Amino acid sequence: MSLDVITPSQARLPLALLDLLTDAATLIAKESVKAYRLERNTGRDAAWRTLRPGKDTPMWNALRAELRPHLRKRGAQANLARLLGLPRQRINAFVTRGSQMPDAERTLQLLAWLMAVQKGPGPA
Questions:
Q1: In this prediction, what percent of the chain has a pLDDT beyond 70?
Q2: 20 to 30 A Cα–Cα from 118, which one of 29, 46, 76, 110?
Q3: Which of 65, 71, 62 is nearest to 117 (CA)?
Q4: Within a 13 Å sphere around the CA of 101, how many CA atoms are in the beta-carbon half?
């Protein structure tokens, strides 16, 4: 059984993701009292509700704030939608309107896209 060697260039992406997640966790820790003040569930129906974007999703709100400046240019939302395999309207609902949240896989794809855009010229 051979072990694959990870080169420094391959390690940069996971390390950048780790830095981004660490920064987000630090921000949440600083605002933990506000961020994680949970409503008391009063019944069975309340316990099974889907998490919606808003004051109870501070990490998603921080990611949206980071994404918004990169999606202001004409066609940027459409290009990101093509990359993710989604309609442009869905990107608008995620980032601009804030009325919806993506699933976990799409959120990780958004994080990777954001890191690539912040690193230099656009990924597409």
A1: 70
A2: 29
A3: 71
A4: 17
Which tokens in the block code for residue 70? Answer: 């990169």
| Predicted structure pTM score | 0.58
Domains of the chain, residue spans: 52-124
Q: Kindly give, in sequence order, each residue whose CB lies less than 8 Å from that of residue 94, ignoring residues fewer than 6 positions away.
A: 64, 100, 101, 102, 110
**CA-closest candidate to residue 25, choices 67, 68, 70, 58:** 58
Sign, Cα dihedral of 111, 95, 91, 75: negative
Q: 69 φ, ψ to 5°?
A: -60, -30
What is the pLDDT at residue 40? 56
